[in-house]
Specification:
By secondary structure, the chain is α+β, with helices and mostly antiparallel strands. Helix content is about 25%, strand content about 30%. It has a five-stranded antiparallel beta sheet, with helices on one face. Strands 9-10-8-14 form a four-stranded antiparallel beta sheet.
């Protein structure tokens, strides 16, 4: 597997989330890591080649994603989270694991479910920075964000104007893709069927 030959949509999706791949092992294992400032990055999931139960001799991809949002302490600091087998795709009879037909599909499923905001928020807290991000979004969406118990630091100022602390944004940068998230270009993706909102950053 040549990770440089991934389709463009997958490459764009990884870049958008500030993620990169590292390949090793036999059978092939492709790790997905977030660029967190450390030399190796932080592991958020991986895909490994595996044989289809229903098609002997045919290799597919089994994905694993870091699932941390429901773990105690996630909103307070970095947690020691487990990596779960992915949902969706083809479930094998023998072991219940999921095997996708392509590495691209395995990575897509991984991004849908991987959570690592605790890691990015811990790094942000350690930096000592105090910043505010603002955007004007649909008022109902702004109210929904402000009503969320976590992450803290999301305020609706009225008329759809939302203010987010840098800690809240860090959590959103590491949110699963099925939920609202912030990308590497400071764009808030609230609904996958709508255009994202550009956040403006101000240091305090």
């Amino acid at each position: 597997m040549d990770i440089n030959r991934l389709d463009q949509n997958t490459k764009d999706a990884l870049k958008q989330r500030n993620l990169f791949l590292r390949q090793h092992g036999t059978p092939t294992v492709v790790e997905v890591r977030v660029a967190d400032g450390s030399p190796a990055g932080f592991l958020i999931g991986w895909a490994e080649q595996a044989e289809h139960t229903f098609s002997p001799g045919t290799l597919g991809w089994r994905g694993h994603a870091r699932r941390a949002t429901l773990q105690a302490g996630y909103w307070d600091g970095r947690v020691d989270a487990q990596f779960d087998n992915m949902v969706g795709g083809t479930v094998t009879e023998s072991d219940g694991w999921v095997v996708e037909e392509s590495i691209e599909k395995a990575i897509s499923e991984m991004l849908e479910h991987a959570s690592y905001g605790d890691v990015l928020a811990a790094d942000e807290r350690a930096s000592g920075r105090v910043e505010i991000y603002t955007a004007t979004i649909h008022e109902e969406q702004a109210e929904w964000l402000a009503d969320c118990d976590e992450p803290k630091g999301m305020t609706h100022r009225g008329g759809g104007k939302i203010e987010l602390t840098n800690i809240a944004v860090a959590y959103l940068r590491g949110s699963p893709q099925f939920s609202p998230y912030v990308d590497a270009n400071d764009q808030l993706h609230f609904d996958r069927w709508e255009d994202p909102y550009q956040l403006t950053r101000k240091r305090i």
